[in-house]
Known about the structure:
Blueprint: H1 3-11, H2 13-19, H3 21-29, H4 36-44, E1 52-55, H5 63-69, E2 74-78, H6 81-90, E3 95-98, E4 110-115, H7 124-136, E5 138-148, E6 153-159, E7 162-168, H8 171-180, E8 183-192, E9 198-205
Parallel strand pairs: 1-2, 1-4, 2-3, 4-5
Antiparallel strand pairs: 5-9, 6-7, 8-9
Amino acid sequence: MSSRTTSDAADHIIDLYQRKASDWIDSRARSSLFEQAWLDRFRALLPPAGSVLDLGCGSAEPMAEYLIGLDHPMTGVDSSPAMIDACEQRFPKQEWIVADMRQLALGRRFCGILAWDSFFHLCFDDQRRMFPIFRDHARPDAALMFTSGPAQGEAIGALGGEPLYHASLDPAEYRSLLDRNGFRVVSHVVEDPDCGGHTIWLAQRL
């Protein structure tokens, strides 16, 4: 795929998820909570009933739903109003915000931050710029968990039959960005076979 086509796919992520929200929700509803073991590792770093910021929360099901069920107050952020509408209908007592994570400035800090299957839709430079945003929303000792690719590069998947952009920095650069922004790596697994082949980073604010 040409660099122009890749760039176009990156620029249309927000629009794509808004238009294809029902496709994503239907697809996710058919899958199990294969992320549970990692959510439990994430929770182990949180205080009881610790607040969670979910960046790219989608429809909140099933990951935010799992944490809400364990009494973690949830603030979910997604660029798709359709996704946030689904969250509000299903979990009206939680906080749901339509926003682009790249411009997020809530002026609050959380006990945990998730960016699961969302952060990796950002282009290289936008990913680099997210680490100060993670830092600014993290309390001391806060957990941060996100997914990436296994190595530096770009890839195009599909959502509802349309191109879906993904990108990853080199693992050494992620480690450097975490370190420079005050996070230590707790666990990192490349293409975890027990989690659908996801590459996962779990870190904690110093």
